[in-house]
Design a protein that fits this description.
The protein is α/β, with parallel strands linked by helices. About 50% of the residues lie in helices and about 15% in strands. It is built from 7 helices and 6 strands. The protein has a 6-stranded mixed sheet with strand order 2-3-1-4-5-6, sandwiched between helices. Strand 2 (about 85-90) and strand 3 (about 90-100) form a beta hairpin. The radius of gyration is 24 Å and the shape is elongated. The N and C termini lie far apart (about 95 Å).
Length: about 240
């Protein structure tokens, strides 16, 4: 039978579409492979993720630890994408990622946008839970963040509670730092089931060395569990 010109065009169109599809498929496979390799590389490192309520100081902490300029805005969506940086403290490398601020009752259509950055919290070995200690609502914020972590299945992690804005807290309470140091073990966070905590002020550089020490111990502990042969040998006499 005779084929009209229309049928020929249709055949050509179909072939073009098929070619496009197979090209896209091979591109996707390549991306999948890359993502897998990246994950494998990432999994070799101890991973630390910063979590916390909006405006607790997560980006500032990220900047402090990675010595890089990270955009800080007192805004909900200042950090929509997770940033991952490699950080080394005393020869121990780890990956540090920032996550979006957790907002109470995140609308469900938004949860999807955040899944990728929240995944950082799921994949992390250690969570740095940053709290704005100067906020009168800080306990509710902690609760909100923990609820969100529960929702995404990241609740059973090693957590370091990082109580930030200590300078503002002391000013509000009219406390001197020495008084605070005496009472903090009694007064603050005594009901939290947590491994460790640190009280810091990023702006006033209070408690930073103690915090680094706490973080170092946790990271080193995991690192040497994973790579026992890298542990420095104590010199035998």
């Amino acid at each position: 039978g005779m084929r009209g010109p229309g049928e020929k065009e249709l055949e050509t169109d179909k072939r073009i579409v098929r070619d496009k599809i197979s090209l896209l498929k091979s591109k996707l496979e390549k991306i999948e492979k890359q993502a897998f390799t990246q994950r494998k590389v990432r999994n070799q490192y101890v991973r630390v993720a910063i979590v916390g309520y909006t405006n607790a100081g997560k980006s500032s902490l990220m900047r402090l630890l990675s010595k890089e300029k990270v955009l800080v805005e007192n805004q909900l969506f200042a950090t929509l994408d997770a940033t991952v940086r490699k950080v080394v403290i005393r020869q121990i490398p780890f990956l540090l990622s920032d996550t979006v601020g957790f907002i109470r009752k995140l609308p469900h259509d938004l949860v999807a946008c955040f899944k990728s950055t929240l995944a950082e919290a799921c994949e992390a070995d250690i969570l740095l839970h940053v709290v704005d200690l100067s906020s009168s609502e800080y306990q509710r914020h902690i609760h909100t963040v923990n609820e969100t972590l529960k929702e995404i299945g990241a609740i059973d992690k090693q957590v370091i509670m990082v109580y930030n804005k200590l300078d503002q807290y002391l000013a509000n309470e009219q406390l001197h730092i020495s008084q605070f140091n005496q009472t903090k073990s009694l007064a603050l966070g005594q009901h939290d089931q947590i491994n460790t905590r640190a009280y810091i002020s990023i702006t006033e550089k209070l408690g930073i060395d103690e915090f680094r020490q706490v973080l170092f111990e946790q990271v080193a502990n995991l690192y040497y569990t994973r790579y026992p042969y890298l542990r420095p040998q104590s010199k035998s006499i």
